[in-house]
Amino acid sequence: MFCEKAMELVRELHRAAEGRLPAFNEDGLRQVLEEMKALYEQNQSDVNEAKSSGRGDLIPTIKFRHCSLLRNQRCTVAYLYDRLLRIRALRWEYGSVLPSALRFHMSAEEYNSECQDSAFLCPESHSGKMDWFNRYKKSLATYMRSLGGDEGLDITQDMKPPKSLYIEVRCLKDYGEFEVEDGTSVLLKKNSQHFLPRWKCEQLIRQGILEHVLS
Amino acid sequence: MFVSDFRKEFYEVVQSQRVLLFVASDVDALCACKILQALFQCDHVQYTLVPVSGWQELETAFLEHKEQFRYFILINCGSNVDLLDILQPDEEAVFFVCDTHRPVNVVNVYSDTQIRLLIKQDDDLEVPAYEDIFRDEEEDEEHSGNEGDEGSEPSEKRTRLEEEIAAQTLKRRQRREWEARRRDVLFDYEQYEYHGTSAAMVMFDLAWLMSKDLSDMLWWAIVGLTDQWVQDKITQVKYVTDVGVLQRHVSRHSHRREDEAHALSVDCARISFEYDLRLALYQHWSLHDSLCNTCYTAARLQLWSLHGQKRLQEFLADVGLPLKQVKQKFQSMDVSLKENLREMIEESANKFGMKDMRVQTFSVHFGFKHKFLASDVVFATMSLMESPEHGSGTDSFTQALDSLSRGNLDKLYHGLELAKRQLRATQQTIASCLCTNLVVSQGPFLYCALMEGTPDVALFSKPASLSLLSRHLLKSFVCSTKNRRCKLLPLVMAAPLSAEQGTVTMVGIPPETDSSDRKNFFGRAFEKAAEGTNSRALHNHFDLSASWRRSPQQQPPPPISDLRPEVVLAGWQDTPASPGWGLQGGAAWLPHAQAVIELKAEDRSKFLDALVTLLS
């Protein structure tokens, strides 16, 4: 039946857990687009025929194909848009440098300098996801720099309002030296506990090297 | 040097700095550490906490961290050795030592800048005077070379020379006398090891001084003190005095409860003073189990024998408790029985020869369901820290540290289960040792060795559990034997430590007397014996620290016929404050009533022989 491939794309994203980005299903997308092309061509020929020979019985078929085309478009747009939202969430989760595994799941990197909006709304052009990510990153950075006076404000820190300036953390694996803001460093060994400024530890907590100790 | 004003000279100094905390592995140190952590968190002092369980770990950790920190705080480690010599710190490093081990090393006392002791001076310290120990290197070169005098008579020169020689001989003799006196003074001072005020109480005092004490901190101080009592580290008199001190704090914290208008919510921690039974964990266990597994009752009633079991039944009948009730969980016992339980048990206990059935202690309530006695928490935390199920030492340390927080009650309950297992294993091992007559008299001391295949022997590889076992064994043995002389002997106990390395841990317990002042002489003895026999021994635990000596020569392995890898002798250490890794089988004076050393299994027998000769 028509539109099944597109449904599969949507289902694939639906199945993926919140925040995870599955690999870009280039194959599936290509099949959907081919299907759309085939439908469109069939429709073209039928419309011409209907106009020329006045065959009214072709009109329901044309309408049906048109609906499938629209449905395919909706599905692919939904697929691509959802992926973009997930990529945006990745920026907030992981910071500006993405782990390589995630980068692999994104589509090809073509560093077009198309405007951001068009990349957002015209997914058929296959402009790279990486490209989109880079531009989003840049846009976010510009925005952050514009806040807070001269130095800018890093709004990706402290997503939840912090309760205290310093937190107690415990080291789960040997990490080595870790520099604190006044230039001195702390040696992070397994099972040592430290009391450090919150914002310095957040990165390491996300990476799983430190563990916040609640008492 | 001793710090007189804790707040100005310690807290305000470290408040603006980053500090490194070295915490030893015992419950008192854990409690002191929690109190200090709470204070630091309140004032945003950046600190790093490193758990250490022995001298080697302390040294390694110090080497790793010394570049990054200037201020170091040592809790329950380091006061009884020459720290500067062992750690070799930089000039600007400052050490704050809060330690219960006594005697405090004289170098630590008289070092002016680098070592600051957080010890109350009203503890009976008896530090020898400065002049008796240190002597400025006066110029003995009292320039006697006045031969080149111009224009003096030869006869005058000769008399002057004679006078000079006489003066020098006199000085030399004085110096020799001074050195002999110094050796005596130091020997007397460092002969016995014992413990001072709990570190947790010292930290609580500091918090109180700054008006930052909370009831949580008070509870930790109570647990620290109770730990000292459970492990027999302090005398009964001192315990009662310290309980009095803490009771004043408890009444200060709890007077708010009596005012109905401002009653605290049920979830807040409420600490109260109790004059409660001495049975271990009895509220979390059944009364019967608790009676069987508490050393005090098990020893007095001699529960390892059939006769003892009958006595237990008689005891329960005398109290008036039906057997069915006593064997079920304490919480499900009839309320009518629980009402006057303590008084009834005390009365009957007096008839059966157990005069000190009740002891002054504290308990804490929060919520509707959670009630703990201080000794319960001590047993739970001790079992968590020494349980063999966690991989490395530091994992168990973090578990134990977490269990002291109020939010981690599940860990505390887990610790209680482990403690029950430990107590049961202890009693079973004692019963088997006594029934199979494993405790033999070696002349000047009693000796017992645990075989490799004994069930639960893995539970006794750590020093605190082994010393608990040994002390209980000695008490039970004293109750069971009819031999008068044996009752006054100390005990040396050995247990296998590591099968691959063939090492054993040895513990020495001083003799059981009513008025014991908890001073242990085994440290010295162990060290001497180990030296004498060239056994390969390691005094790693902080209690042995006084005899920590470094011997660079490797000894060839002696030919040993029958090696039982069980006995690790705690040796006597009597070299005062000489740092180093002693390759001796001697036991060091343990600050508390035991000395612990680790020894190669092969060296055990000759070590034992040396010990016998030394002590007889």
Automatic annotation (TrEMBL), chain A:
<dbReference type="Pfam" id="PF05916">
    <property type="entry name" value="Sld5"/>
</dbReference>
<protein>
    <recommendedName>
        <fullName>DNA replication complex GINS protein PSF1</fullName>
    </recommendedName>
</protein>
<dbReference type="GO" id="GO:0000811">
    <property type="term" value="C:GINS complex"/>
</dbReference>
<dbReference type="InterPro" id="IPR036224">
    <property type="entry name" value="GINS_bundle-like_dom_sf"/>
</dbReference>
<comment type="subunit">
    <text>Component of the GINS complex which is a heterotetramer of GINS1, GINS2, GINS3 and GINS4. Forms a stable subcomplex with GINS4. GINS complex interacts with DNA primase in vitro. Component of the CMG helicase complex, a hexameric ring of related MCM2-7 subunits stabilized by CDC45 and the tetrameric GINS complex.</text>
</comment>
<feature type="domain" description="DNA replication complex GINS protein PSF1 C-terminal">
    <location>
        <begin position="163"/>
        <end position="214"/>
    </location>
</feature>
<feature type="domain" description="GINS subunit">
    <location>
        <begin position="43"/>
        <end position="110"/>
    </location>
</feature>
<keyword id="KW-0539">Nucleus</keyword>
<comment type="similarity">
    <text>Belongs to the GINS1/PSF1 family.</text>
</comment>
<keyword id="KW-0235">DNA replication</keyword>
<dbReference type="GO" id="GO:0006260">
    <property type="term" value="P:DNA replication"/>
</dbReference>
<dbReference type="Pfam" id="PF24997">
    <property type="entry name" value="PSF1_C"/>
</dbReference>
<dbReference type="InterPro" id="IPR021151">
    <property type="entry name" value="GINS_A"/>
</dbReference>
<comment type="function">
    <text>Required for correct functioning of the GINS complex, a complex that plays an essential role in the initiation of DNA replication, and progression of DNA replication forks. GINS complex is a core component of CDC45-MCM-GINS (CMG) helicase, the molecular machine that unwinds template DNA during replication, and around which the replisome is built.</text>
</comment>
<keyword id="KW-0158">Chromosome</keyword>
<dbReference type="InterPro" id="IPR056783">
    <property type="entry name" value="PSF1_C"/>
</dbReference>
<dbReference type="InterPro" id="IPR005339">
    <property type="entry name" value="GINS_Psf1"/>
</dbReference>
TrEMBL record, chain B:
<dbReference type="GO" id="GO:0036064">
    <property type="term" value="C:ciliary basal body"/>
</dbReference>
<dbReference type="GO" id="GO:0031261">
    <property type="term" value="C:DNA replication preinitiation complex"/>
</dbReference>
<dbReference type="InterPro" id="IPR003874">
    <property type="entry name" value="CDC45"/>
</dbReference>
<dbReference type="GO" id="GO:0003682">
    <property type="term" value="F:chromatin binding"/>
</dbReference>
<dbReference type="GO" id="GO:0003697">
    <property type="term" value="F:single-stranded DNA binding"/>
</dbReference>
<dbReference type="Pfam" id="PF02724">
    <property type="entry name" value="CDC45"/>
</dbReference>
<keyword id="KW-0131">Cell cycle</keyword>
<feature type="region of interest" description="Disordered">
    <location>
        <begin position="136"/>
        <end position="161"/>
    </location>
</feature>
<comment type="similarity">
    <text>Belongs to the CDC45 family.</text>
</comment>
<dbReference type="GO" id="GO:0000727">
    <property type="term" value="P:double-strand break repair via break-induced replication"/>
</dbReference>
<keyword id="KW-0539">Nucleus</keyword>
<keyword id="KW-0235">DNA replication</keyword>
<dbReference type="GO" id="GO:0006270">
    <property type="term" value="P:DNA replication initiation"/>
</dbReference>
<protein>
    <submittedName>
        <fullName>Cell division cycle 45</fullName>
    </submittedName>
</protein>
<dbReference type="GO" id="GO:0005813">
    <property type="term" value="C:centrosome"/>
</dbReference>
<dbReference type="GO" id="GO:0071162">
    <property type="term" value="C:CMG complex"/>
</dbReference>
<feature type="compositionally biased region" description="Acidic residues">
    <location>
        <begin position="136"/>
        <end position="153"/>
    </location>
</feature>
<dbReference type="GO" id="GO:1902977">
    <property type="term" value="P:mitotic DNA replication preinitiation complex assembly"/>
</dbReference>
<dbReference type="GO" id="GO:0003688">
    <property type="term" value="F:DNA replication origin binding"/>
</dbReference>
